[in-house]
Amino acid sequence: MFSSSQFDSAAAFTGGGGGGGFNYSQSTQSTDPLPTSAKSRDTQPMVPVTVKQIIGASQSTDDKSNFLIDDALVSNVKLVGMAFDKAERVTDVSFVIDDGTGHIGCNRWVNEAVDRKEVEGLSDGMFVRIHGHLKGFQGKKQVLVFAIRPVTDYNEIANHFLECIYAHSCNARLQNGVSAPASSSSTLGTPSGYQTATSQFSQDYNLDGLNNIDKMVIEYLERPSSTGQEKGVHRNEIATQLKIPMEKILEAIESLESEGMIYSTIDEYHYKSTSSG
Amino acid sequence: MDTSNPAVFVNAELLRMHVGRRVRAVIQVLRSDGGGTVVGKSTDEQQLVIKGHPPGPLSTFVEVIGIADSNQSIRAEIWTNFGDTLDTASYNQVCQLANGDYKHLFI
């Protein structure tokens, strides 16, 4: 059944996070041994993020001065970027990290000789990996670093960004997955597995009244790879790429076409999004 | 070193979409003449010309951050040696994802 297989894969993501621990607290099927609750403080997962995600993070509603990235509580972060403006002081060392998506100030408190040794090898312009705690200070966000080391194998950079993408899409999928158990008991009569009765989708996509498969199809047709093709995308390609059975694709195409969001091009099998570009 | 502007991950194919903007790319150095240009192969196997003077000897793979001044060249401001071994396929994938579905995480 479509919905249950999707949900299982979401659970597999939470278990498969490995050392990083992508056990977001919204998950109801976490295979992680630690009890995760939205309020667990001592066992905060460490999330790989881009600086742009940090800059865009909103303050969480409780007073813990934690931040929300993708609506998940985040306090500990992993960053990989270039260090600049290193300023060594008596008790701490501060620098700016730029990972190509933005820059953020970081602070490393130096209490013992081993801490100082960790930072003295760093110089401006060097790629580093940072593990730290995200905090706000006088309205600005800052990372309180508890571990920093230079990057030696540069595959780490690509790897870090892929992890950020993975964590983000895992988190987004979990948020969609939360609605799945509630929906299995509701009978809304539309054929797809997921019911998007929640407002999560509508605020993101402004596609009220469309179900999940329609959204996936229109999203696929709005990608640059699809809009770049003059003749549009063959519906077989949509079915294989999204791994959705053809009859559901046909239903989605029909409903999108009646909404005026897609149109057929060279023949009835090829479609393009009307809002391309 | 001014990196106050975000730099987009690009390969040769994506470079043309960001001409005039700050970009970053990893290239495999093919040849470098002392005259201020380096010819390299991008992560998607196409040739790119990098203008500028590298700060020192270059390793096989180099990341350049700078302004894209044409479909095939970058005016580099920052050069970083990435060593002699690199998985270009994963970097290429990052470029595609960062410009595609996950653009909002990067730019």
From TrEMBL, chain A:
GO terms for molecular function: DNA binding. Keywords: DNA damage, DNA recombination, DNA repair, DNA replication, DNA-binding, Nucleus. One of its GO terms (cellular component) is nucleus. Residues 23-38 have a biased composition (Polar residues). SUPFAM superfamilies: Nucleic acid-binding proteins, Winged helix' DNA-binding domain. InterPro entries: NA-bd_OB-fold (IPR012340), RFA2-like (IPR040260), Rfa2/RPA32 (IPR014646), RPA_C (IPR014892), WH-like_DNA-bd_sf (IPR036388), WH_DNA-bd_sf (IPR036390). Signal peptide: none annotated. GO terms for biological process: DNA recombination; DNA repair; DNA replication. Its main location: nucleus. It is found in: Nucleus. Residues 17-45 are annotated as: Disordered. Residues 180-268 form the Replication protein A C-terminal domain. It comes from the Eukaryota. Belongs to the replication factor A protein 2 family. Component of the replication protein A complex (RPA) required for DNA recombination, repair and replication. The activity of RPA is mediated by single-stranded DNA binding and protein interactions. Required fo cell division in meristems. Involved in the maintenance of transcriptional epigenetic gene silencing (TGS) at specific loci (including some transposons) by regulating histone H3 acetylation, 'Lys-4' and 'Lys-9' methylation. This is Replication protein A 32 kDa subunit A.
UniProtKB/TrEMBL annotation, chain B:
The keyword Nucleus applies. It comes from the Eukaryota. Its main location: nucleus. Keywords: Nucleus. Gene3D superfamilies: Nucleic acid-binding proteins. It is found in: Nucleus. The keyword Nucleus applies. GO terms for cellular component: nuclear lumen. InterPro entries: NA-bd_OB-fold (IPR012340), Rfa2 (IPR013970). PANTHER family: REPLICATION PROTEIN A 14 KDA SUBUNIT A-RELATED (PTHR47058). Belongs to the replication factor A protein 3 family. This is Replication protein A 14 kDa subunit B.
